[in-house]
Amino acid sequence: MQAKVGDRLVTESNKVDSPRREGEIVEVRGGDGGPPFLVRWDDGHEGLTFPGPDAHVVPG
């Protein structure tokens, strides 16, 4: 998975009643655009994220 600053990270929920999570990638710390990503989630929380197989990047 590759991304750049300004792209959006979307993590789909693996539970029926849980919503998916979305956030803006504010920093890419891996080489060649790879993870980990510093993400500002839509709820305002920021965190370093290593996306799993349930995540995808939407170009910004």
Automatic annotation (TrEMBL):
Domain of life: Bacteria
InterPro entries: DUF1918 (IPR015035)
Domain DUF1918: 1-57
Basic and acidic residues bias spans: 1-30
Signal peptide, first to last residue: none
Annotated segments matching region Disordered: 1-34
Entry protein name: DUF1918 domain-containing protein
